[in-house]
Write a structure and sequence with these properties.
- This protein is an alpha/beta fold and 529 residues long.
- The protein folds into two domains: 283 residues, 4-Layer Sandwich (Purple Acid Phosphatase, chain A, domain 2); 215 residues, 5'-nucleotidase,  domain 2.
- The protein is built from 15 helices and 29 strands.
- It has a seven-stranded mixed β-sheet with strand order 6-4-3-2-1-14-15, with helices on one face.
- It is globular, with a radius of gyration of 25 Å.
Length: 529
């Protein structure tokens, strides 16, 4: 019996040694958004200089064990901070190049500048990583820089031929910006390219995606040739690989590593003869101030900071505009005081009846204490063009009550969270689970379907979320871009409040004689999840 157990144990040991003799380490990040100095909310977290050190340390440790590494980023590495304006985003691109990624997905905030401007940027920058997005379609003879954008990268590691397939989101509220090209359905693209890559000799296909965690699950379930998903877009921190099944019933892992360079994802994998992947180890490594900063990256960051200060003015950025007794949290999952303040600021900036705020478009949270102007700017760090350093503007839209009601119902069914300032209603759910809006009030008065209402939209929502297409544009009475940018509107609100209290949701302030007064149930706001 002992001999038999010894033989079984010895055989299992040989199998394990053989099976795991050449594991591969995948290091991955996503949604860095140009937060090059730190995560902004907490200066002890993140920072490209620390991330660079950590990546090199992990590569060195793996190399000492005879383990090969693949380093990937899931996209949204450009737009998202004021560093977007540093040398017209070339500074951030250069830092990404110095990180020595093998492949980087193109995220929506990387092509938010539009087809032509992206083409010009890629023509002007040199980089060693492969930028991938198989579902981006455009005339590459017209936009020559887009020739640098590839569908995939083929790598041969330890005898395994591995394809890294790039996929970016085709969401309607973003893809309209890619105005001189087309973004194809990522799942159809994955099915087409998965088969193609396997026919080209790839044993394993890793989907490097910027689709979001929910869409990644759908991607796996509707494809047969994807062996692993390394994702981005939803800023999800996945500490354990999420395992789901593909069309053939085979298990496929999905991973993601949060946001803003706060974490480095580590995934030790074993590749079977059929190309499928088994996860051996998973670790999320925090990027903290305990990690020494890479000196070359630190110098690049310092130079970029100097450029940002020259563009906006160092004293301008550091100016304190107010205080908060609570952490100001941007959330797309619940109403928060900061969500409400942002929506209110838009409404009040043009004395509108309704203010519309989409929390999915915001940036950093702000910790309690003094609020600087730069923090205000980083809480809504959105740009459509490298020529517009002051970001998005407030749009003044006039619409009849019936159109406003249609939009509320659209938001309710659409699944994307929105905060409406100046509005209240209740949601009725019928026996079939369908939701219907009832008892709408605007400014405390019942909605009048044929009355014109003044609505304040952030630029990105009116251009993208509404689409500005089809019958909708005919139903809106007028649309005007104001001279007020989002940052000025929000700063003015914070200055009026002076100090933000934790009870803002139940006792918000209104402007009276130039000061904020508190009042109770007269305030209207709804959160649509």
């Amino acid at each position: 019996m002992l001999i038999r157990l010894f033989i079984i144990a010895f055989t299992f040991g040989l199998y394990s040694l053989f099976s795991y003799a050449k594991p591969i380490l995948i290091l991955h990040t996503n949604d860095l958004h140009g937060f090059v100095e730190n995560s902004v909310y907490d200066a002890s977290q993140g920072g490209y200089a620390r991330l660079k050190t950590l990546i090199e340390q992990e590569r060195s440790k793996a190399n000492a064990r005879g383990i090969s590494t693949i380093t990937l980023d899931g996209g949204d590495f450009l737009e998202g901070s004021l560093f977007y304006m540093s040398d017209r985003v070339k500074s951030v691109f250069n830092m990404m190049d110095k990180m020595n990624y093998d492949a980087v997905a193109l995220g929506n905030h990387d092509w938010l500048m539009g087809t032509a401007e992206l083409g010009h940027l890629l023509s002007d920058v040199d980089f060693s990583f492969v930028l991938v997005a198989a579902n981006i379609e455009a005339d590459r003879n017209r936009f020559v820089g887009l020739k640098k954008l590839k569908s995939h990268r083929m790598m041969e590691i330890d005898g395994h031929k591995i394809a890294i397939l790039g996929l970016t989101t085709d969401e309607n509220n973003f893809k309209w910006v890619f105005d001189k090209g087309h973004i194809a359905d990522p799942i159809k693209t994955a099915n087409k390219w998965g088969k193609k890559l396997k026919a080209m000799g790839a044993q394993t296909v890793i989907a490097l995606t910027h689709l979001g965690f929910t869409k990644d699950q759908e991607l796996v379930s509707k494809t047969s040739d994807i062996d692993l998903v390394v994702g981005g877009h939803s800023h999800t921190l996945i500490d354990r690989p999420y395992i789901t099944r593909n069309k053939q019933g085979r298990q496929v892992a999905i991973v993601q590593a949060g946001e803003h360079a706060k974490y480095l994802g580590k995934l030790l994998i074993d590749i079977a003869e059929d190309g499928s992947i088994k996860v051996l180890e998973r670790e999320i490594v925090p990027v903290t101030s305990s990690i020494d900063e890479d000196p070359i990256m630190r110098q690049l960051i310092s130079e970029a900071r100097t450029q940002v200060n020259n563009i906006y003015g160092e004293s301008y950025l550091k100016t304190v505009v107010g205080f908060t007794e609570i952490d100001l949290i941007n959330s797309s999952g619940m109403m928060t005081p900061w969500n409400k303040i942002i929506a209110d600021s838009f409404k009040e900036s043009i004395n509108a009846d309704i203010g519309v705020h989409s929390p999915n478009l915001t940036g950093i949270d702000i910790p309690k204490g003094a609020i600087s102007r730069e923090q205000i700017m980083h809480t809504y760090p959105r740009f459509f063009s490298l020529d517009d350093r002051w970001g998005w503007h407030i749009y003044h839209v006039e619409m009849y009550g019936m159109v406003a009601k249609m939009l509320m119902e659209y938001y309710l069914k659409g699944g994307e969270s929105v905060i409406l300032s100046g509005v209240n209603f209740r949601v009725e759910v019928n026996k079939k689970g369908k939701k219907k809006i009832k008892d709408i009030t605007i400014g405390g008065e019942p909605i009048r379907l044929f009355k014109k209402y003044k609505v304040a939209f952030p630029e990105g929502v009116i251009k993208g979320g509404l689409g500005m297409i089809g019958v909708l544009i005919d139903l809106i009475h007028s649309v005007d871009r104001t001279e007020i940018n989002l940052w000025d509107a929000l700063e003015a609100k914070v200055r009026r409040l002076g100090t933000i209290r934790g009870d803002y949701l139940i006792r918000p302030g209104v402007v009276a004689d130039g000061k904020e007064k508190s009042f109770g149930d007269e305030a209207d706001a709804v959160f649509i999840p």
